[in-house]
């Protein structure tokens, strides 16, 4: 991992859940998804955390260098983006989840994803 990644991903984020507050490492988050009045956080160990926070509030806790909002309901960790599937306009994540990228965010997403690994 480059210095940018190793220094950024020593971060810990505290997430409000229905039970209380949970501590997670930012590098463990694959993606976050809004669901009604709560959010779901999908981790690299196949765990899912339900947060009482909105997706917008959650996204503010995470670095914009590593996390990108691909559509109205989903924020992904760019480290886990493996492939962009043009025919479906979606990104394939390391855990084999296919996340739709909105048409209006497609070009910006591709630019940020490519520049993320170019720096």
Automatic annotation (TrEMBL):
Residues 19-115 form the HTH LytTR-type domain. GO terms for molecular function: DNA binding; phosphorelay response regulator activity. Gene3D superfamilies: LytTr DNA-binding domain. InterPro entries: LytR-like, LytTR_DNA-bd_dom. It holds the Pfam family LytTR. It comes from the Bacteria. It comes from Ancylomarina euxinus. This is LytTR family transcriptional regulator.
